[in-house]
Amino acid sequence: VSGCCELIFTSTKGPWITNLSRPCSQGSLGLFVPPSPPLDPDKVKELQRFIGLSRKLLVMTGAGVSTESGIPDYRSDKVGLYARTERRPIQHSDFVRSAPVRQRYWARNFVGWPQFSSHQPNPAHWALSNWERLGKLHWLVTQNVDALHTKAGSQRLTELHGCMHRVLCLNCGEQTPRGVLQERFRVLNPTWSAEAQGLAPDGDVFLTEEQVQSFQVPPCVRCGGPLKPDVVFFGDTVNPNKVDFVHRRVKEADSLLVIGSSLQVYSGYRFILTAREKKLPIAIVNIGPTRSDDMACLKLNSRCGELLPLIDLTDFLLNLAAKGIDCLR
Asked: Where does the record place the Deacetylase sirtuin-type domain (predicted)?
């Protein structure tokens, strides 16, 4: 269900008042979102206070932010990929060393791309973008590769695992927009078609071996090398420079909020360890247990898109206005 998310701040104190309206998508609620208990008003107030006291809030998001936009995740109880099927995500080493593996991957990705690329931000993405606009969010680190934070307007953003909307040549490093590659696929495979056998989290679908055998994969236009999505596959490592950059942002922060991540993958979990070493307060919003529940001062088992828009920044804005700061200028 698509509609309009409207955030209204009213006061008599000056020109920083605004009315922000934009389209949003509720996605496939219930299809990929695990069940959660009703919101606890006291817990919501605690999160409100946690965020209100933060001056340099760092937010880390995971797949649980995007499930409400209709993108499945891997680990959610009963609805994640691991719970629904025996299939597992592609391994980096297999993709790099095997042309048939790359053919199979790109055939699946070609079929799934139109739907994956059409997903839209949900209220959680819009809320985080608004926090940044209002000066409340110091930095946003996402483990997601779906570009939904970018679509929502977030700019103080690090895509820890890359983005499916870019393609990288494994030989020369040339980057290409994923939409450009989609057209090259169409030209090379004018009569090829396949029916999807299910949706996977990272922009591809499930196909049979027979379906993919005749699919043609184009090489890099610059050097003829093999192409790969500009994302970190399982078994690969995050670029060390990106890791160092995020560590610096964590050390600048005065609090850390985890949203929609079980933190099972070390690439994200390591930053929680850094926050703990720095004695930062940590809050977690995630349906189900996480690897860091024992490190958090606050944990909410809630839907991100239901909870985040409830956080009221009016006091924060009034304090800025009293100091003569126009955060929306």
From this structure: 37-329
